[in-house]
Amino acid sequence: VQLVESGGGLVQPGGSLRLSCAASGFTFSSGVMRWYRQAPGKERELVAAISTGGGSTNYADSVKGRFTISRDNAKNTVYLQMISLKPEDTAVYYCYAGGWSKADYWGQGTQVTVSS
User: Fold this and answer.
1) C-alpha distances in Å from residue 91, one per residue of 55, 58, 103
2) Which residue intervals of the chain are DSSP H helices?
């Protein structure tokens, strides 16, 4: 299983970014996909999750209304669209895949920095 995140970077407060996670090595449509983040000195936290078919999503309260998770099962890719970014959104963002076995799979992470 391989998960490769991209799309991170430096953005000003109020700006937008779209993260992508390209997945391989498993049947993508069978995997529950999630985005987590970890800020310096803090625990990793769940940001957003999407069901296998994409019909069900959920979000951390801190990002509701600003972040949108989506997936394209034809492209084996999950996305995280982030708008109205705040300095407190600064973190390393990780892609997660699981749900078809007992194992959890993680990407290497992509840095998002929100700063003026």
Assistant:
1) 27, 19, 24
2) none
CA distance 33 to 52: 7
For residues 18 and 20, what is the distance between their CA atoms, to the nearest angstrom? 7
Number of H helices, E strands in the chain: 0, 11
Which one-letter amino acid corresponds to residue 83? I
Q: Which of 39, 36, 64 is nearest to 49 (CA)?
A: 36
Tokens of 62: 């801190």
* 82 contacts 66 by C-beta, under 8 angstroms: yes
User: Mind listing the pLDDT tens digit for each residue in 65-104?
Assistant: 999 999 999 999 999 999 999 999 999 999 999 988 889 9
In whole angstroms, give the CA distance from residue 61 to residue 81.
Answer: 16
- Label residue 54 exposed, middle or buried (CB < 10 Å: 0-12, 13-18, 19+): middle
